[in-house]
Design goal:
It is a single chain. The chain is α/β, with parallel strands linked by helices and 221 residues long. Helices cover 46% and strands 14% of the residues. It has nine helices and six strands. The chain has helices at 15-28, 43-51, 66-75, 90-99, 111-127, 143-155, 169-176, 181-184, 189-204, and strands at residues 3-6, 33-37, 57-60, 80-84, 102-108, 131-136. The chain has a six-stranded parallel beta sheet with strand order 3-2-4-1-5-6, sandwiched between helices. Bound molecules: adenosine-5'-diphosphate (ADP) and magnesium ion (MG). Magnesium ion binds at residues 15-16, 39, 43.
């Protein structure tokens, strides 16, 4: 079962936002999808509560229960898993990277955030899984920052994902309403960036394009 881990030692880098958006893409593609929230703050789970009957499914679990939670989800028919992790959570991040097929590391392109990437890089390299940095909340006209950041990350042995997310109000506005960017602003730039990322993730995981799109409600799934 394709499993994506979202890790970064820095809080506020966009882990939960990314996890929820990817999982919702999979749910719209008709896949039975589960977000496993291993952050004690449980922000993904709170979003699930606000979202109510709408997919994807969110479950919480402590990092030591990750493997068994994934197995239970699989037995229940889950076809795609996204793991959200806490900041400063070495054990949680390591466990998530260990069980994942693909690791995504969102970061803002700012000095202090990049400094925190060294710890994340060590942790992810240890797991030996394909791992990519997603540059998040990138300001407009930031070509130079992007180049410098990508070079810095290369030196840490972390490739940068070809898709980036800009600094877009649609991300936090939609999350606060238990939605994703494509639901709040279907024609917006945030929605287009998420769709591009989802195409890229599917390709990385060797997943076929869906034949038929699914509904968005749990009661209709
Ligand atoms: N690309 C973006 N543009 C604007 N705001 C963003 C973006 N990504 C995340 N945010 C906002 O930044 C805050 C932190 O994001 P969050 O996903 O909770 O980070 P983390 O889970 O890493 O702590 C949230 O308010 C979220 O809505
Ligand atoms: Mg979070």
């Amino acid at each position: 079962m394709p499993t994506v881990a979202i890790v970064s030692q820095k809080g506020g880098s966009g882990k939960t936002t990314l996890a929820l958006h990817l999982a919702t893409c999979a749910a719209y593609d008709g896949m039975q999808t589960c977000v496993i929230d291993t952050d004690p703050q449980a922000s993904a789970a709170a979003w699930g509560d606000w979202r109510g009957d709408f997919l994807p499914e969110i479950v919480t679990c402590p990092p030591v229960r990750l493997q068994s939670t994934i197995q239970r989800a699989m037995r229940g028919g889950t076809e795609f898993v996204v793991i959200d992790t806490p900041p400063h959570g070495d054990i949680a991040s390591r466990e998530a990277a260990r069980v994942a097929d693909l690791v995504l590391i969102p970061t803002r392109a700012r000095a202090l955030d990049l400094h925190a990437m060294e710890a994340t890089a060590q942790l992810v390299t240890y797991a030996g899984k394909p791992a990519f940095v997603l540059l998040n909340a990138v300001p407009a006209r930031a070509t130079r920052i992007i180049e410098e950041t990508s070079e810095f990350l290369d030196k840490l042995g972390l490739p940068t994902c070809p898709v980036r997310f800009g600094e877009r109000a649609a991300f936090h506005r939609s999350s606060a309403a238990g939605e994703v960017a494509s639901e709040a602003e279907p024609e917006g730039k945030a929605a287009a960036e998420v769709a591009a990322l989802w195409d890229w993730v599917r390709e990385q995981l060797g997943m076929a394009k869906p034949k038929k799109k699914g509904g968005r409600k749990k009661s209709e799934a």
